[in-house]
Amino acid sequence: MVKVELKDVTKFYGKIRGVENINLSISDGEYLAVLGATGAGKTTTMYLLAGLLSPSSGTIYFDHEDITKKPAEDRDVGFVFEEYNLFPRMLVEDNVLFGPIVKDLDITDSKQIARELFVLLNIAGKEKNFPDEISGGQKQRVALARAIVSNAKLLVMDDPLRALDAKIREILQIELRKLVKDLGITCIHATHDTQEAMRVADRIAVFEDGKIVQIGSPEEVYNHPNSFYVADFLGESTSMEGRISKKKKESFFIANNGLEFKVKTDLKDGEEAIALVPAELLDIFDVEERETLNYDNIVEGKILNSKCVGEFNEIEVMVNGIIFKAKDLIGKEVPARKGSKILVATDKDDYRIFPKEKEIKK
Predict the structure, then answer these.
(1) Domain extents for the chain?
(2) Confidence (pTM)
(3) 31-35 and 186-191 as β-strands: parallel, antiparallel, unpaired?
């Protein structure tokens, strides 16, 4: 519906930086997820796009038109807040049609679009309810319908699913992406949840301290993080400090405690480094299976802790003073009791290797 560009956009709240020198291009019809911790600049970016804040410097374009100073009501942006912000004394139907009425759009066409959205979003039959008479998931669907029905060219969502329980959130993630793609709306969706960003987005922009530190497809960001911060933010992982050793055209990471792992890296021999391996890439086996395994790296350790989390067992294994974090599917026949010996197996391309920084942010 609209191509969006931010060029050198900066926003300060007094002396406090919201975002700084943001350069971002969002294609017509693209679904972009903005991922980052609290305070990273996600909400500031959403408010700048919607016109609820003005940048301290820089320019915002919609389809090459400079809309930096255009009022929010003239931008055709649908905004979905975390808190829903429905009018409590209005019926669901009146909440959804509020925008078209204020904008003096054709009410007959708007009602038809609203009816279609009620069916698509599975809230048909709730039109005559008040917001406090429907569930949290239904309220969020109403907020989505309200944002879309007003001829929105851009849909901006600020952590829209954060307040929902896990099952409803997962369902809505799938529904959201399908709806946005079916309608052809350009969408930018801010979230702190890595799995949510992976599920919904065509591309992910990772924010840190008011700046974009990496942008790419979910696969690119996950498989090729460009910094320790990005790799560490994307999920549970094990990290180690050490150095790189080159032997017979192979690269090895030598941890400070002496553990040695075959890895893939362009870092030079002797260079100090940090190795990180995501929990889901660690495979665990009974010690009796050692002779049947074909991995680049196999080390033995003892289980410190194991707990069931959804469809996974989250396991902590102590290996020579380092705690390895693993996620294994429930049902796999491996020891799970505290103190049990276990094998931790990895391949060389499971590791993300970074030059050692002066300070590692956790």
Answers:
(1) 4-229, 237-355
(2) 0.85
(3) parallel
